[in-house]
Amino acid sequence: MNQNQKKGKTTLVILTILCIVLIAVSVVSSSATAPVTGITGYVITPIQKGMNVLGSFLSGFSTNMTDAASLREENARLQAQVDTLTEENSKLVLNKEELDRLQKLLSLKEQYSDYDTVGARVISKGAGNWFSSFTIDKGSKDGISVDCNVMAGAGLCGIVTAVGPNWARVRSIIDDNSNVSAMISTTSDTCIIAGNLQLIDEGTLSLVKLTDDNNHVHVGDKVVTSSISEKFLPGILIGYISELNNDSNNLTKSGTVNPAVDFRHLQEVLVIRTKKVYVAEDADASAEEMTEAPDTTKLTAPRAEDAAAAQENAAQAEQQGDEGQGEEQQAQEAPGEGGAE
């Protein structure tokens, strides 16, 4: 037992001495290597900082690249949504504009409900900015024929001049070759609305030959188609007087009219299949017959004169043949009978 205690004490002493030696060596070593460690730290520390900065930059760059790719994808997705919404919005705007036009056309149809009408779309037009002549997508198959009146906007637009199975050509009232017999709705004074493409550039129509003896017609009065027009149905709105002046003859007046139709932006029209029945046709026919009668008389008169001359020559021949006085007088009466035939 004593031996074991001795061994333990011996071991403890040895360990204590070893610790003291190691401590001493550590103190001596740290003192000796301190300058080297300082130099090493002075050189390596900036490098380590640079490496840390570079690592942080590369890490951030990688993160930014990832974020940029995500942002590009998100931007492309949002741009596609914007394009879709813009397209849908454009369609909605166009649909609303078309709906507004069709509602106006429906209102016009209801306003002239006494007439048989059919709607049509404008598919082409003549040269220039104005719809002075244009073609629609309805024709004879739809009951449209030449001289059918055409309306648009709030009133009269023109008249059909040519027709095919599924198309019709329309001449607007602004065309230079157009003349519409019109009247003032408040006074029934008659006038003519003459087409003038130069004047329509100012947004007006030409009003001429207005008979206003009592000076009852004023600016702002409504102008409609006249009941004496040969081709246009009565009472269709043309426009409103914007200017009025006395002519040099002091018998008639001229001026301008603001049209009820936008002749620059025609897209849909309303064709009236009910055509004007011109009641003066019978009177015109009678007048033509009366005119032809004198012509017939003039054609037959020369033939009667020739017959009278022939009979007169025969009478003279008989006279030369020693015919009696009674026979000569009878021969002179013969031309009167021939002229009556």
Layout of helices and strands:
Blueprint: H1 2-111, E1 117-125, E2 133-136, E3 149-152, E4 155-163, E5 168-172, E6 179-184, E7 190-194, H2 197-200, E8 205-210, E9 222-225, E10 237-246, E11 253-259, E12 268-272, H3 281-320, H4 325-340
Antiparallel strand pairs: 1-2, 1-12, 2-5, 3-4, 3-12, 4-5, 6-7, 6-9, 7-8, 8-11, 9-10, 10-11
Sum this structure up briefly.
This protein has four helices and twelve strands, in the order H-E-E-E-E-E-E-E-H-E-E-E-E-E-H-H.
Assign the CATH topology of the domain at 120-277. Thrombin, subunit H
Mean pLDDT: 77
Derived structural class: alpha+beta
Low-confidence stretches: 285-310, 321-341
Oligomer: single chain
Mind summarizing the main beta sheet?
Answer: 6 strands, antiparallel, barrel
Overall outline: rod-shaped
In terms of DSSP E residues, the strand content is: 15-25%
Order of helices and strands: HEEEEEEEHEEEEEHH
Can you say what the CATH homologous superfamily of the domain at 120-277 is? Rod shape-determining protein MreC, domain 1
* Annotation, overall tally of beta strands: 12
In the CATH hierarchy, what is the architecture of the domain at 120-277 at level 2? Answer: Beta Barrel
Task: Report, as a whole number of angstroms, the end-to-end distance.
Answer: 191 Å
CATH class of the domain at 120-277: Mainly Beta
Record the strand order, biggest sheet: 1-2-5-4-3-12
- How many whole angstroms does the radius of gyration measure? 55 Å
Percent helix, as a range, is 40-55%
Number of helices: 4
